[in-house]
Amino acid sequence: MSGGKYCQRIRATINQWLARARVRVEDERGLGLADSLVAVAILGLAVTAFVLALSTGSIAVRVNEQQVVAQRLVQTQLEYVKNYAYDPEATTYPAVDTPEGYTISVAVAPVPDTDTDIQKITVTASQEGEEVLIVEDYKVNR
User: Which of 35, 66, 129, 134 is the most exposed place for a label (fewest CB within 10 A)?
Assistant: First the structure.
């Protein structure tokens, strides 16, 4: 095969390849918009999932913080009641100071079928009127 014919064949092959490439490009003109819309939809879903995860996490942190504050309040109140002078006629004991938004109540009840030297103490911690934690313990006259 001569050099001229070989070059003509190569040119013909390149021209055929270029013609096919142009046809492919012309057939795929609308896919750019569709691809963009799908990418935006996927990005929107990812951002929405991230925001929902953050809000759920912040709610969990707030509930946990509420529980921790209530536990500390109840523990402090029980220690205060146990160190307070025993009163066999008491229906309540003084409450400790509470943070803003929290209230604490103390109820005293005699324990049935025992002597008068033991009381059941119920401490309730509430936040904005909603009970958060209720703990019961006993106080003994020593």
Answer: 129
